[in-house]
Amino acid sequence: QVQLVESGGGLVQAGGSLRLSCAASGRIISSYNMGWFRQAPGKEREFVARIRWSGGSTDYGDSVKGRFTISRDNAKNTVYLQMNSLKPEDTAVYYCNAQQSVINYWGQGTQVTVSS
Q1: What's the sign of the alpha-carbon dihedral 56, 43, 94, 17?
Q2: DSSP string spanning 85-101?
Q3: For the chain, how big is the Rg over CA atoms in Å?
Q4: For residue 99, which phi and psi values (nearest 5 degrees)?
Q5: For range 6-35, the mean pLDDT
Q6: What's the half-sphere exposure (Cβ side, CA atoms, 13 Å) at 45?
Q7: How is residue 86 annotated by DSSP?
Q8: How many Å separate Cα 51 from the centre of its chain?
Q9: What is the SS3 assignment for 70?
Q10: Tens digits of residue pLDDT in 26-83
């Protein structure tokens, strides 16, 4: 089992920045692909970013490319999402994900609200 706890959400003005953290416990996450997803009210959960366990390559959703950066610190068992140039449409609950083969673990989510 992997337990994931997100933090760092909050209220920010458009154009501002936030850094989300996802602390993992239970197992070492160095062999897991780690990702961030988000869900706005009335919408489906959306892929935001992923960092692979092997090589550390990254992928981003089209709506956040060039503004968000995902990183991981395996020594701290933590994944980060640096969010810059935030827009009101980035408002959502952000969820951390750990994936290995068909196994997925999710955190409880952290709210990000961007005011215009």
Answers
A1: positive
A2: S--GGG-EEEEEEEEET
A3: 13
A4: -130, 135
A5: 93
A6: 11
A7: -
A8: 10
A9: strand
A10: 877 788 999 999 999 999 999 999 999 887 899 999 999 999 999 999 889 999 999 9
Going by the DSSP 8-state scheme, the letter that residue 43 receives in this structure is S
Q: Do residues 45 and 39 make contact, with C-beta atoms less than 8 angstroms apart?
A: yes
Measured in degrees and rounded to the nearest 5, phi and psi for residue 89 equal -75, -5
CB 80 within 8 A of CB 20: yes
CA distance 54 to 58: 10
Tokens found for residue 62: 């089209």
Residue carrying structure tokens 């892929």: 47
- 26-60 b/e (C-beta count within 10 Å ≥ 16 → b): eeebeebbbbbbbeeeeeeeebbbbbebeeeeeeb
In the Cβ-directed half-sphere of 104, how many Cα atoms lie within 13 Å?
9
- pLDDT for the residue numbered 68: 98
Q: Locate 37 and state its tokens.
A: 């997803």
Encoding tokens for residue 105?
């673990």
Over residues 75-96, the pLDDT tens digits come to 899 999 999 999 999 999 999 9
